[in-house]
User: Fold these one by one.
Assistant:
Number 1:
Amino acid sequence: MESRLARVLIKGGSGFVLVFLYLPIAIVVIYAFNNSVGQKWPIESFTVKYFKQAWDNSLVRESLGTSLTVALFATAVALLLGSAAAFAVHRFRFFGRNAISFLLVLPIALPGIITGIALNSTINNFKIPFSVWTIVIGHATFCIVVVYNNVLARLRRTPTSLVEASMDLGADGWQTFRYVTFPAIRTAVVAGALLAFALSFDEIVVTNLTSGNENTIPKFIYNNMRQPRNRPIVNVVAVVVVLVMLVPIYLAQRLAGGGEGLAPARAGGEVEGMENTVTAAAVTQAGQY
Amino acid sequence: MAVAAESGRASPFERASAFLFRHARLKLALILGWPLTWFVFIYLGALAVLLFSAFWRLDAFTGLVVKNLSTSNLQRLLDDPVYRTIALRTVGIATAVTLTDIVLAFPLAYYVARLAKPRMRNVLLMAVVIPLWANYLVRIFAWKLILSQGGFLGWLFGLVGVDLHIANTNIAVWITFVYLWLPFTFLPIYGALERVPSSYLEASSDLGGRGWMTFRRVVLPIIAPGVVAGSIFSFSLTLGDYITPTLVGNTRFIGNVIYDSQGIAGDIPFAAAFALVPIAIMTMYLVIAWRLKAFEAL
């Protein structure tokens, strides 16, 4: 269909975009081994000493601890509330059912700064002290939709005949949940939780506005990036974060399997033609900024 | 439990289960109550506070928030030309970023949707999405390194004899935004291209339509909603971002004014009032997108 010229242009353009997407990441990784504090290219000598310095840095450790705590609690809340909402929407017909999806998507449909400033003005208005818990509340609010999307998508793919068969065979509601429904959605729940964890661990826009003096890893990177002296350590932390982040993403992708995870789009409709959870969740992720 | 059931006496647990089965509304309330309470109290509550704060004002003398409804913040926004400049600058960069992203995303989307073999297609789709999961700040940091004085890009241009100085400029902000949001623009365009029926293209070529003609008269009208859908992301995300301009630029954007009013100045009412600006712009944008049927392409 396409002329030869068109094909050449399309392939050339595609190649350029792929280089454009990956070159910056490659450069950050290379710079992590840069011996000099100045960031001149080409790099003159290499070292791994900043990895040790970053590991020994007390602020990095403190930030890591806060980040992990926040991500764990935010994920736990998202897991409970997101799954509950997915069940309610899947199993029941009620007034305002369609509005639920819309409501849950709202924190990521609006720019992150809106969610952040809204929470910030509320925290200030009611004179709530900033703490790890204010960060958790912010993160959980936008993580809920990730779990919700994953669980709801799986519930929709699971035939209701299985539940009916279980009830016909005399199982009560709890047994049906325990032996039929839960095994069917288990991997989707875990995938949703992993994505929520990754989302929380990465978040900076809302965190900046809900954390007060608490430090998280993204906050550490944000605050120290502007200080040239600290850049080598920031760089090492950055590379480690990227590598560590790939683990939950990879696992989530494996667990959810292909054809899963049609995240309701920002407008509340279904995302079509998305191949997998991570793709769909990535669209969902848009809202965190 | 099974034993208890056989002996004819239901355990409290079973009775509760049966009770809930008969009272589905109660069950619904028990399940939905938790997430709904969270969202209504924490999220909608916060948005309501934001909306009200926009009409409160900060007493310059005491530094306290005065909770009387007034439009003084909005008045200040409209009267002070600085804020108009900042709003226009933000919308200008958002437009430039959106257009650049569409131009960049298109060839790859076309390749993945129509030329690549299925196996390759999945690999490329993942390849586009994975950078999104490399921390957002890390991606900005990467561009800070690349664009800095004596950095990679300057070196690259130096090889062909061009002296490049774009560190801490709006060009740097533009490039970084283009990079950050490219995958978000890519996905809806890819989705739209994938749904163009091959038979339409064959029909067009049977009827004598050459490549460009087919593209303009057949492909473009079909994928237009997808392109608009893709533009929502890059536009909205640029509008609300305060991190990127802070880190790679040197001018203020809407997000910076909101963030700084809240932080440095402690003037939350003004921050809230300025937050209404991107909300208003995005609402208009979404209404137009909705009219163009872009949501069906999401």
Note: The CA atoms of residues 261 and 277 of chain A lie 4 Å apart.
Number 2:
Amino acid sequence: MLKIEELHASIDDKEILRGVNLDVKAGEVHAIMGPNGSGKSTLASVLIGRDGYDVSGRVEYEGEDLLALSPEERAAAGVFLAFQHPVEIPGVGNMYFMRTALNSLRRQRGQEELDAVDYLSLAQERMKLVEMDQSFMSRSVNEGFSGGEKKRNEILQMAILEPKLAILDETDSGLDIDALRVVASGVNALRTEGRAMLVITHHQRLLDHIVPDFVHVMAAGQIVRSGDKDLALELEANGYAGLTPSSERAERVGATG
Amino acid sequence: MTAPAPAPSVGISDEVRELADQEYQYGFSTDLETEVAPKGLSEDIIRLISAKKNEPDWLLEWRLKAYRHWTTLTPPTWQHISYGPVDYQDIIYYADPRPKKQLSSMDEVDPEIREMFDKLGISLGEQERLSGVAVDAIVDSVSVATTFKDKLAEVGVIFCSFSEAVQEYPELVRKYLGSVVPHNDNFFACLNSAVFTDGSFCYIPKGVRCPMELSTYFRINAVDTGQFERTLIIAEEGAYVSYLEGCTAPARDKNQLHAAVVELVALDDAQIKYSTVQNWYPGDVDGNGGVYNFVTKRGMASGRNAKISWTQVETGSAITWKYPGVVLKGDNSVGEFYSVALTARRQQADTGSKMVHIGKNTKSTIISKAISAGHGQNTYRGLVDMRHSAVGARNFTQCDSLLIGKDSGAHTLPYIDVKNNTGQVEHEASTSKIGEEQLLYCRQRGIPEEEAVSMIVNGFCREVFKMLPMEFAVEAQKLLTVSLEGSVG
């Protein structure tokens, strides 16, 4: 489904991704771990088409050149990002926002738009997945939401928009254990044969709840090690230090997450 | 308190830029037979206007008094706008698009005028109108049609052109004309008092709730014509009226002057809700042409518990200069101002509200939403004035500015003058920009960029839109979207 080859990305002449290679098949869940500044979030940003990066290399998604598409076209092709820091949009109702998004996607895919009634029943069903009540829908997008509510709202959008490739960027950060459980069970409910997930996280903790098929470790803009879920446990025990190529340690770049 | 905030560039794509030069939809002009006075302003021109309108002597004298005062004034320079000098002798002060005979029914309205209003989406045929909105249509300063007059007359509501009111209800006009905005109020109001040619007049008798929305539609059509209309609305004790005004003008490369005056009078327990959707021609992308909208609007909440509410959506005009206000004279009276002002292209707006608290326990609310895109400049200027007598007065002001692109500007200039220690004044202000983050978030969910911008802006304005009558709110949203398409980038 997703094939990343020699992906490089830099911002203001600072190289953050230095040749990422990754192969993700439908139905697989890949965890991407790594220390701060290793390029995990940048990888997510480049995949969804955030502005401001100089990008080279190749990303093939369902046989298409993903890098040639605009952010909305990528969304229409089924790429979804659960943002690390979901932004607030004052005055725009959450319900209205998600319906507009869903119908934009449907329109771009040549499907019929959902009317208000059908949409409402879909939304209500999906809200159960993340244990959200109706009051969330009448509030403005993310406005005044707690950290945990924002993350649940991201997973709700994923449940409603039904992407093929879901990227979860630090979805566990800032969650207490109860919220983590809700979010993780929501994500697990959305694991299907046809859907792939990239789960970006700092912590092994999330992977106790969302058990990945593969674990990759990023350091200094590259995937330095790949393995199965046991690799995450090993990292938990030993830390990242041993995994960073020593030659790279001195020149780590200052990107976030 | 000025906050000229430089906004970082927003990543706007070429598609949106292509939309940037979208034509002003109402820029057509209509070939009407128009009777015009010679250019220029003098006592003779004023006498001519007054004679054309068969006015009583007292009104001519009032006009002349205003004119003589006006000749002693100079245009104001304190506002945060810039424009070349206006040659007041190069303007036509009277243009009458009507055929000479009196109209006895709507069917006799000049077909070309009807067609012009049809193009604007306003039907002058009463049967064709879906909802109960009575319309007074004003072209180049002269009222051409007023609908639903008979139906309104049944409940005692008078809704007619100003000229007709002068003939039919001179005692009411004489009593209230200039009672809120005196003939010598300010440069533009003074000019208006001297040369106003028509406008709407509306009188709601005691205890009557006006059964339909009243609406005036203004259109500047003739070349080199100034539009100086005068609107007077009186709500007697316990009366209620909701009044809407809409405006458009043809796209012309020369600036057109619009200097209107609106006076509202609300007696005990009366309520007036006045809504404006202003879409005068804004000029082209380089700032050529467009309407100079220099307007004085003021309400007098003279009775106890009276309430006057202004809602405005200002998207047009090259320059907007207006400060709809309320004089809160009656005890417990309420004044409200809800505003969305959008400046795109090279538009400039200096607008806000004046709330003058005189009576006890008077209360005012000001909510201002300013959006600047392109090279637009938007200034909020407001006055909250609490006099000695205004014991227990309260004001809440909120001014929010939204910047789109790196060349636009927003400024906030609140003036607060409180002369008694029981008054309560709250002021909140914010300036934000449509962030790349908000846009990316929407686009990541599949919402195309231009739709995302419109969604974010409409969300920003929601507090004001919800104050508009339903149909107008929808219109206002569309207008905002179209105006933004003309300028984002």
Note: The domain at 2-87+164-249 of chain A is CATH 3.40.50.300 (Rossmann fold).
